[in-house]
């Protein structure tokens, strides 16, 4: 009879250890593998002069909805396949800070001639430029990509 009791106890411990082993294996299967995505750091120092000339797109907008050109301190933002625009004269206070004074508007009721936007280049990374723009106390952050 002792032999049967001993076998029963051994079988019970083997069963429990098998259940624990399966639990440990199952938790490993359900946990997703975590891989670190390496993101390139922002330029240091910030390459503010990237904004002084070129063609720019917003990262969230297709080109037919919005794009911008800057040449000879004149910034032109094109909307609606270029049918509407806002043209501004740029006055650089330093490499990273500038004012955009609106000199011409077509098809935009919210922006008027002589409106002044105060802009600051916050960060750059390769051809990406993060800008903070302020008008009448309202601040807007947006990211541009320089395409040429």
From TrEMBL:
UniProt signal peptide: 1-21
Residue ranges, compositional bias (Basic and acidic residues): 24-41
Region (Disordered), start-end ranges: 24-45
Keywords, ordered alphabetically: Signal
Record protein name field: Lipocalin-like domain-containing protein
């Amino acid at each position: 009879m002792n032999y049967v009791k001993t076998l029963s106890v051994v079988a019970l411990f083997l069963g429990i250890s098998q259940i624990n082993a399966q639990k440990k294996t199952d938790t490993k299967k359900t946990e997703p593998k975590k891989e670190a995505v390496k993101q390139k750091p922002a330029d240091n120092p910030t390459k503010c002069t990237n904004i002084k000339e070129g063609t720019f797109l917003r990262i969230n907008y297709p080109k037919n909805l919005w794009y911008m050109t800057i040449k000879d301190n004149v910034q032109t933002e094109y909307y609606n396949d270029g049918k509407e625009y806002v043209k501004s004269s740029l006055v650089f206070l330093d490499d990273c800070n500038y004012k955009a004074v609106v000199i011409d508007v077509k098809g935009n009721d919210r922006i008027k001639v002589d409106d002044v936007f105060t802009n600051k280049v916050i960060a750059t990374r390769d051809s990406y430029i993060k800008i903070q723009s302020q008008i009448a106390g309202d601040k807007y952050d947006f990211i541009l990509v320089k395409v040429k």
